[in-house]
TrEMBL record:
InterPro entries: aa-tRNA-synth_II/BPL/LPL, Ala-tRNA-lgiase_IIc, Ala-tRNA-ligase_IIc_anticod-bd, Ala-tRNA-synth_IIc_core, Ala-tRNA-synth_IIc_N, Ala-tRNA_ligase, Ala_tRNA_ligase_euk/bac, DHHA1_dom
Annotated NCBIfam families: alaS (TIGR00344)
UniProt-listed SMART domains: tRNA_SAD
GO molecular-function term, one example from the UniProt record: aminoacyl-tRNA deacylase activity
Keyword Translocase: no
Signal peptide positions on this chain: none
GO cellular component labels: cytosol
Name assigned to this protein: Alanine--tRNA ligase
UniProt cofactor note: Binds 1 zinc ion per subunit.
Keyword list, A-Z: Aminoacyl-tRNA synthetase, ATP-binding, Cytoplasm, Ligase, Metal-binding, Nucleotide-binding, Protein biosynthesis, RNA-binding, tRNA-binding, Zinc
Functional summary from the UniProt entry: Catalyzes the attachment of alanine to tRNA(Ala) in a two-step reaction: alanine is first activated by ATP to form Ala-AMP and then transferred to the acceptor end of tRNA(Ala). Also edits incorrectly charged Ser-tRNA(Ala) and Gly-tRNA(Ala) via its editing domain.
Length: 864
């Protein structure tokens, strides 16, 4: 069977047995699930169903889920079966059949669908664990016996082999695995499934999900007994295609063949060929699901994957840009099963090319430095940190190369240096958030009947208090019907009041807690008390809700305008929608030019003035996708979704659960406040709308009028008046020996855009010491907060170097002291300084141009 046939055989079998086929979820887990960085199993997109947070579309489900496991990155190419990206086939029961049904389905498909011989199949079951308070899984043993598996082919295994957790917290339970006995020729007569041998190959894991594990590792029964099975498609392909390794199966052969075609070394190393094949699949699927290269979390995993692939491509002697060739092959082999790959092809190629170009420029220099250190037989923490900080080498890659040379890296020392850098820059992100179970338990604990949200239709609702509780000094209330929106999708919660119909109590709504489709309110009592069964009137703060709705609709218009102006690669990477402002993070490599920023703002306001209707509608996920609706990467959507479209939907159509204005004219006005870098390859725009925007314009107008009065001119003449004053000041400074204004302007005009940062790296004649530092500072000032200036000069047979970095560049990781050290090494000198300004000297003026190139590379690496 081909891989496509294996996938379809599995899914069609379970569809025939009343399982609803589910589309694969994203590799980015849903926002409510903080337990994993990337989707590692087929059940992750279904976690809310297993935890009772949401109702499943059917009690029986089946899917082929995209998965990614970061711990296996280092094992790829070393073993015959480890992959980073892989496909997991699964069948799921939410409170329907349990162990007996799962075993019967598995045995039927194994024998009659995939053609295994019954005498070649063994089963393992959980042997129990006294520390966990669980005994042997006798129910599973009886189920296997009932379908004809002899007792001697049912093997008991410990929790390490036969108990499954979805993460540190969440659903878990004992499992039973199916193994294929490949014969004594693959091992020894006394080998058993679950042991370290090649004779028995595990191909299916049946998880009997019975428990929910909390942070203290305590197990409590789930509301329903559930089934979650996983069959690795790629491993099954090894068996059914009768090959020795995963890399000999049909999905990998074209990628291995491409590597051999591109390689120029005499004997291409299998390990490098396999790493390129695996990593190119992983990077393609990660980017298609909205991940972009960065130095944090998922972005770091992607960056590490891509840079490792680039390094192994160079080891094979591949020159020039080659990753796009791999992307094309991945699309050819897997695009039919995953159409999002073709839809996101432009995005994939954009990020692949950007990373290959950026890292390619520093790889040669970094590898030369690494090789030099390894030749001395040591690699201390400082060297590993320099490779990471200056040349963008993931420390895992440095460790891997060092291990091949038999050299140990001081990992503990490297971690200390990294921690010190994070403290200095305060640029790290926080944890992944708390466990959703706490909020869910609180909401469900108030009342099992879910609150009906009516806030789309009404801002005032006569309703009943379903439950009240006190916890940690706070009061929580659940209403039968609620008009209050619970924070989600970047939009903040509504504020408002709850008043008893009898007039004897009133409470202010401080927060709205979300648990799936359910909610509860945190309230602060103003007068009286709220009691269960009380009739109340719940009222949303209308002014705040309208401001939020205006900002949310404006966010959709901003997204559409950015895609029109910059390209379809732009996608949302985070947002904040409140009554005060909107903030929108999006994937893009460069800062917006003044012209682009103006074009985006003008387009938004043109749509606002067009008074386009804003409509929401419920439709199927497939229909919404067919209509081109934008979806937030990593967000979980059910079969029925809420779609918001503006006008005829031709320029804005998004899946969204937030609140919106009825027409764009209600927004009034949109004014962009700022545009800057939020993280590597992520830009951030902040904007205001309506009365807040009008107030700001009035303030600016008053400031301009004040400046005109002070300059004794009209508002239209302020710029000319200031220019004249600046010219006089520069002339005076020049007369007094200061920096030449023409030189500053000329140097600033040579700035190039490097990953959203304006960089000047140039030489000047005969300027040294204090004057060179002053000149560099002035040039940096011309570039703005996101600018970096590197100037070098040869004076009296020596080299002077100065680096100045703006606060925006420093926040992105560019440190003047680190950059000047790299440049100084090239000219045979040294130096240092602060993050904002640093100086160095050298002895070799003939290498000044090379030093400036090294500085550019160091800046690029720091930004990467």
């Amino acid at each position: 069977m081909t891989s496509d046939e294996i996938r379809e055989t599995f899914l069609a079998f379970f569809e025939k047995h009343a399982h609803k086929r589910q589309r694969s979820g994203s590799l980015v887990p849903a926002a409510f699930d903080p337990s994993v960085l990337l989707t590692t199993a087929g059940m992750h997109p279904l976690k809310a169903y297993f935890m009772g947070l949401e109702a499943p579309p059917a009690p029986r489900l089946t899917s082929c889920q995209k998965c990614f496991r970061t711990p296996d990155i280092d094992n790829v190419g070393v073993t015959a079966r480890h992959l980073t990206f892989f496909e997991m086939l699964g069948n799921f029961s939410i409170g329907d059949y349990f162990k007996q049904g799962a075993v019967e389905f598995a045995w039927d498909l194994t024998l009659n669908g995939f053609g295994f011989k019954p005498e070649d199949v063994w089963a393992t079951v959980f042997e129990g664990d006294p520390a966990m308070g669980i005994g042997p899984d006798e129910e599973a043993i009886e189920a296997w016996l009932s379908v004809g598996v002899p007792r001697e082919r049912i093997v008991l295994c410990p929790a390490s082999e036969n108990f499954w957790w979805s993460g540190e917290t969440g659903p878990c339970g004992p499992c039973s695995e199916l193994y294929l006995d490949r014969g004594v020729e693959w091992g020894e007569p006394d080998d058993l499934p679950g042991g370290e041998n090649e004779r028995f190959l595990e191909f299916w894991n049946l998880v009997f999900m019975q428990f929910d594990q909390d942070e203290q590792k305590q197990l409590t029964p789930l509301p329903n007994q559930n089934i979650d099975t996983g069959m690795g498609l790629n491993r099954m392909a090894v068996i059914l295609q009768d090959v020795e390794t995963i890399f000999d199966t049909d999905q990998f052969l074209p990628l291995i063949a491409l590597g051999r075609e591109l390689a120029t070394v005499a004997e291409p190393e299998d390990r490098s060929l396999r790493i390129l094949a695996d990593h190119s699949r992983g990077m393609t699927f990660l980017i298609a699901d909205g991940v972009v290269p960065s130095n944090e979390d998922r972005g770091y995993v992607l960056r590490r994957l891509m840079r490792r692939a680039i390094q192994h491509g160079r080891r094979l002697g591949i020159t020039g840009s080659f990753l796009p060739r791999y992307v094309d092959v991945v699309l050819d082999t897997m695009g039919a099963a995953y159409p999002e790959l073709h839809a996101e092809k432009d995005r994939i190629l954009k990020w692949v090319l950007a990373e290959e170009e950026g890292f390619g420029r520093t790889l040669e220099q970094g590898m030369a430095l690494l090789t030099d250190h390894l030749s001395k037989g040591t690699l201390d923490a400082a060297a590993a940190f320099q490779l990471h900080d200056t040349f963008g080498f993931p420390v895992e890659m440095t460790i891997e190369v060092a291990e091949e040379a038999g050299v140990t890296v001081d990992e503990a020392g490297f971690k200390t240096l990294m921690d010190e850098q994070r403290l200095r820059s305060a640029g790290g992100v926080g944890g992944k958030g708390g466990r959703v179970g706490g909020t869910a338990d609180l909401v469900r604990g108030l009342s099992t009947e879910p609150t009906t949200f009516v806030g789309y239709e009404s801002l005032e609702q006569h309703t009943t208090v379903a439950a009240v509780t006190e916890r940690d000094g706070k009061t929580f209330v659940k209403l039968a019907e609620s008009p209050f929106y619970a924070q989600g999708g970047g939009q903040v919660s509504d504020a408002g009041t709850i008043a008893c119909d009898g007039g004897d109590c009133e409470a202010r709504v401080a927060d709205v807690l979300r648990a799936g489709d359910d909610q509860a309110l945190e309230v602060e009592l103003v007068t009286g008390t709220l009691k269960e069964g009380e009739r109340v009137t719940a009222t949303v703060d209308r002014t705040a809700r309208h401001a939020i709705a205006a900002n949310h609709t404006a966010t959709h218009l901003l997204h559409a305008a950015l895609r029109q102006t910059l390209g379809d690669h732009v996608s949302q990477a985070g947002s904040y929608v409140g009554p005060d402002k909107l903030r929108f993070d999006f994937n893009h490599t460069q800062r917006l030019t003044d012209a682009e920023r103006a074009q985006v703002e003008d387009q938004i306001n043109a749509w606002v003035l067009g008074n386009h209707p804003v409509r929401s509608m419920s439709t199927t996920l497939d229909e919404a996708r067919a209509l081109g609706a934008m979806a937030l990467f990593g967000e979980k959507y059910g079969d029925v979704v809420r779609m918001v479209e503006v006008g005829d939907g031709s320029f804005s159509r998004e899946l969204c659960g937030g609140t919106h204005v009825r027409s764009t004219a209600e927004i009034g006005l949109v004014k962009i406040l700022s545009e800057g870098s939020s993280a590597a390859n992520v830009r951030r725009i902040e904007a205001i709308t309506g009365p807040a925007a009008v107030t700001l314009l009035r303030e600016h107008d008053a400031a301009l009028s004040g400046a005109a009065t002070a300059l004794r001119t009209q508002p239209a003449g302020v710029v000319d008046a200031i220019t004249a004053l600046q010219a006089k000041a520069k002339a005076a400074a020049k007369a007094g020996g200061g920096t030449d204004a023409g030189t500053v302007d000329r140097l600033a005009a040579t700035a190039t855009d490097t990953d959203g940062i304006a960089v000047v790296a140039a030489s000047v004649d005969g300027v040294g010491g204090k004057d060179l530092a002053e000149l560099t500072d002035h040039v940096r000032g011309k570039l703005g907060d996101d600018g970096v200036a590197v100037l070098g000069s040869a004076v009296d047979g020596k080299v002077a170097l100065v680096v100045a970095a703006g606060p925006g560049a420093i926040a992105r990781g560019v440190k003047a002291g680190a950059v000047v050290k790299v440049a100084a090494q090239v000219v045979g000198g040294g130096g240092g300084g602060k993050d904002s300004m640093a100086q160095a000297g050298g002895r070799d003026p003939g290498k000044l141009a090379d030093a400036l190139d090294a500085a550019r590379a160091a800046i690029q690496a720091a930004l990467a």
